[in-house]
Amino acid sequence: MMWFLYTLFPQDFSKKLFQTGLAISSIFWIICLATPLKIYSQTVAPFQVFTLLCIVVGFYGLAKAVFHRRPGALVMIAGCILLTATVINDILHSARLINTSYIIGFGIYALVFSQSVVLATIFSKAFRDVEIGQKKIKRLNRQLEDHIINLDAIVDEKTREIRSIMTHIQQGICLVEGEQVKVSSEYSKHMEQIAGSQDIAGQRLVDLIFQDSQISSDLKSQMHSTLHAAIGEDPIAFEANAHLLTHEFKRQIGSSVRTYEIDWNPIEDDQGLIDKFLVAIKDVTSLRTLQEESLQRQNELKLISEIINVPIAKFDSFIISCREFITENREAVARSSAGDREALTKMFRNMHTLKGAARSFSFDELAALAHDTETYYQQLRDQHDTNWNQDKLFQDLDAVEKMIEIYARINAEKLGRSQEETDAIIIDRDIVEENMARLSRMDLESFQDGDRDLIIDLKQLFNNLVYNPLNKVLEEQIHSLGKIASDLGKANPILRIEDPGISFTKPAQELMIRVFTHMFRNSLDHGIELPDFRQNHGKEAQGQLNIKMYLEHGQLKLEYWDDGAGLNLPLIKKTAIRKGLIQGNESYGALEIGEFIFHPGFSTKREVSEISGRGVGMDAMRGFLEDHNAQIDLWIDAAPDSKALGFVPCKFILTLPETYFDIISSQGNATAA
Prior knowledge:
Layout: H1 2-8, H2 15-34, H3 37-40, H4 44-67, H5 73-94, H6 104-168, E1 172-177, E2 182-187, H7 189-195, H8 205-209, H9 217-230, H10 235-241, E3 248-253, E4 256-268, E5 274-283, H11 285-307, H12 312-335, H13 341-360, H14 364-383, H15 390-414, H16 429-441, H17 449-466, E6 468-469, H18 470-473, H19 475-479, H20 481-487, E7 494-499, E8 502-504, H21 506-527, H22 531-536, E9 544-552, E10 555-562, E11 567-568, H23 569-578, H24 590-594, H25 617-627, E12 631-636, E13 647-648, E14 650-656, E15 661-663, E16 669-672
Parallel strand pairs: 7-9
Antiparallel strand pairs: 1-2, 1-5, 3-4, 4-5, 6-8, 7-16, 8-15, 9-10, 10-14, 11-13, 12-14
Helix pairs in contact: 4-5, 5-6, 9-10, 11-15, 12-13, 12-15, 13-14, 13-21, 13-25, 14-15, 16-17, 21-25
């Protein structure tokens, strides 16, 4: 009975208690079956007590089952109550405590009946559940069949769409797989157009798409090896070598060159290893063309913004000077043998001056190219290279010249700027200079006052056409002082010019521009101190540059100095010793040491910048002046034979022949900028 209840309601009966009761009851049954009546009859009383305990446990479990509303619990508890009542009756009757008869058979019948009812109910419910389950399964099968039919239709529709896309998309798409990394049968129609052939399945991808391209055989082999090695490997291994795959290439197709963009996308299998690659190729020729045109327009706009700030006359003069420098350097490279120090010095000087002029006008791209070319000259000079690479020398000059012509073209074509105006009268310069010379030879004292004034006015008119005062000649160089000072972390300096009414001829104007381009840079980089240093030493934060002009023995003298600390003679001497120009144990005067700043390639700076440090500025000034029968001298505020070295104030004195200037006004003036 307990076994039946435990099987029927296992959640409400203790398994251990059930097993214990089963063991005890088994012992009673064994005694009953294996021993004679005289022995097993002695166990009737204990068995009856055990039976009552089982009944209590049974009722406790049934009560829990009723509480939890288990199916059949009420029927079973009714049957158990009847059985219990009959058992108690028989026990009491056996003990002769009541005068009844044995009725346990009726109790057993009631229990069996209740068990039958419960089992019938359970089996009936099970059959109903099975029937309901069958109906649900049939319904689910019908739904699954409908879903499969719909899914097949969706798959067919999506397949048609994908095929349509793969047929019409203007992009090469394919799968590559296998150890040989070959194109699979799945690829877009446009892939055949890119490859230039049909039925491309089974062909090696690298050989197929990179034919007639700029990709070398070595690079093709490298890319194939990278893809081959990635098959069957973790994606991380591919990412480590993905940089070896090109992402853009050009191909010659007929008479045109097409540009393609290619993407490599690894596809993983169910184990997370690379199984194949999805390759996408797109023709970006038109896009790259538009990008290049856009970039060209941006560059043109940038150059226009630089050019438009420069007066026409100064710009034209700048272009002419640049062309002259390029021509001179080409001739020097063509006629000079390797190791020609004199030719290299001139080339260096020209390029350094060109760079300085370009920076003065804020022509940044041209200045950068000139700086790179100058750097190569510096390497040849420092290494004493006897094997000039003439091809590189000419290529560098070509690059600088190309940029010069771009500036000239934009000025002419985009800005339409020219010195020729439709309502202007054009007079040949030679004619103007010839008439100026005739006016200068006239004896003004022999003319009456009115005629004398007329001649002076004519002379002034011609002078304004051909001659310019120094402050106008150096207009752009003066304007660039602020930018140079800012680049060096210094304050914009003050320039003072003491002018007795001197105007310069055109050759002298070009010479002054070249000379003072270097002079100003040298002062700002080497002479003028940083603002904090100046203020700590009782000076104004702004440095001061000074030019004083006067006549002496028919020649023009220009004195130039700044209010910096002066020449650092100890450093100059140390640099001269390091460069092997003098011996350390020799004795030199202050002026002799100072003169080394004019030596080619001499610079006290260890680091080269775009402003200075190459040791060409002072050398360039002296060279330009000597080429024009002029000269530059150094004046030091110390006795010529002084051996005491330190910081010494200095001046640079330029001397120009009389053909380079004219005196327009007898009254001097001083200007500050």
